[in-house]
Predict the structure.
Amino acid sequence: MVRIKYLVIAVLVVILGIWAALHFFQSEERKVKKQFHLLSKWALKEAGENTFTMAQKTRNIGKLFAEHCELKADLISFSGRYTPEEISSYAASARFSFSNLSLQFYDFNVAFPEEGIARVTLTGKLKGRTTTGEDVDETHELECALKKIDNKWVFSYVEVVEALKK
Amino acid sequence: MDGNNKIRQFFFPSLTVRFLIRASLVALFAYLFFGHLCTPILIKGHSMEPTYRDGSINFCWKLRYIFSQPKRHDVVAVRFAGNKVMLLKRVVALAGERIEFRNGKLFVDGKEANEPYVRYPCSWDLPLRQIEKNCVYVVGDNRNMPMENHYFGQAPMKRIIGGPLW
């Protein structure tokens, strides 16, 4: 019985050690995923959001993107190369047309084809209600590329993949 | 007294090696079965109504198409980037067939399809198109909405990961 008690304590210590290692020494993959979580956090809009918060969030969204980020989204006619400022202003106008909005990411597949480049395939889910009262619930597969600039991962390419072709 | 002991032993078993091994095996089996073979799914949305209601729970049986191909009228799970978010749709046409919608009626190779599962009125019009090799055409059962708001189309076989258990 005493041996079992020590075994359980040892397992708990190992689990705690693994958690601490993962938490304090973030891998590149975790750093890449963190950028998506930040995008999610700043895209989130709750009812009654004030103008200051909105301006701060949209400015932060722009900071996640590279100087010339290529976006490919035939579904919403938003393809081309954009600067962070253009992305911020697009995000501001998109958020403005929603009374509440959330953007969630799932199923991350992260690969590093070369030093300083990350390719991520994932599922993005956009959910919200427009100011005209229309419910929006869109799910799409996304292919993204991120570049490491000044020790920070930024989006350089985002493509919306059509899972079903009408 | 003996009965009380048995009940206590059932709910609060002694922490023996035998118990730990048994609990680990049950946990491993549950993880493999419910995490990879028969995953629980929560149905969100109205695109498969009335067959599958919004908010209902089901399981995705991932071995369904290991040794066979999806057949016409099968309900299949179509994946995006991974397995966390998927679409539940019905196969209406197979590779090589030509489909079109005329006044809400589905035509496959020029013949009107019999679709007893479609209960709500539909007014879609979609020009004739041929299904590519290694693909199937999937549509939801609820077509009582503008065609632009319904996510349907041609899905490559590699995206079909199984089907609902019932």
